[in-house]
Amino acid sequence: MASILRLYNAAIIRRPVFTHSTTSAVLFGAGDVIAQQIIERRGKNHDFMRTARLTFYGGALFGPAFTKWFQLLNRIKFSSPTKAVIGRVAMDQAIMVPVMVGLFFSTVSILEGKGISGVQDRLSTAYAPAVLLNWGIFIPTQLINFAIVPHHLRFVVVNFVSLFRNAYLSVINTSSQHLEAIESDKDSEK
User: Fold this and answer.
1) What is the rounded CA–CA span in Å between residue 105 and residue 162?
2) CB contact at 8 A, 169 and 104
């Protein structure tokens, strides 16, 4: 086990974007599997396309974006370690979280074939609860992460904490789809 962790650590240092993107793809996919099998209890009715969409988002968008974001945050200099932790957490939560939550719902809606109106509907129902959830989870996580975790491993911490947040995002995304369908049915009955 220790040799696997050493190899993974070396891969993070040598090829951070590739390694973090691959890890994100696996964990976003796993989060959706948890959502479908444990939370929603879908069993044999597992929606593999949904899992594929989330895996794609994790690997193609979340992984590269957050790798570069963390590299940028690590380059910013602060006058003290305490100010560095607070400044990085504040920037992360005020800038990146709102952007990435919006990107998540927009990307998944487009991959589902919902178009721009679907993106707008999804954002209106799911965006605020998801951002609030992220703040509740990641402000404390990032305070610890930026204070004590070596910079090259911070993304790994976020990825593993994200596993269950990803399950929640998957459920919230599906729930907002059901609300949109109900509202669409009501509109068509009028």
Assistant:
1) 16
2) yes
